[in-house]
Amino acid sequence: MADLRSALRKAIMTKLTADATLKAFFPSGTVNISYRPTRMPLTLPRITMFDFGDRGDETTPLWDRNHQLDVWDADLDKCEAMGQRIVELLDHQGLTLAEDEGLAARVHVISDLDATQEDADLARKTLRVRILAYDYVTPYANN
Q: Under a CB-based contact definition with an 8 Å cutoff, are residues 71 and 79 in contact?
């Protein structure tokens, strides 16, 4: 399963970092995205991501993965605009995985949130993306 999780993370990050419209929101022209956010200081704007999920049964190698993407900036309107672009890139759109890693069968945004922060100088837009994916790598995938 580790390979499928990594493949899905990589596919999301590749899709977001390659998009010219999303790049335009970042002064450097490079989408700042990181996986598993830590408490270290981040340069704004920033996108952070983590994921979780489960497998429905022992026979079918179908995983139900949820990826939470948080868009951070000092301006909530900018967070909202970046979040909307992420929705356009991921909601009901395909994700490209290597043939031997798996198949992202369904990708859709299931929730969004404009969260008030304790620090009024920081804004966050939260998106949760659900991905149903078949695992082609683990031994049980060929059962």
A: yes
Residue 18 phi, psi dihedral angles, 5° rounding: -90, -10
**What pLDDT is recorded for position 83?**
97
Question: What beta strand segments (E) does 31-119 contain?
Answer: 33-35, 46-55, 62-73, 102-115
Please list the ranges in the chain whose pLDDT falls under 70. 1-2, 116-117, 119-120, 137-143
Say if CB 61 and CB 105 are below 8 A apart.
no
Note the CATH architecture for domain 2-142: 2-Layer Sandwich (3.30)
Q: Please tell me the predicted confidence (pLDDT) of residue 138.
A: 63
C-alpha neighbours within 13 Å on the C-beta side of residue 12: 30
One-letter identity of residue 133: A
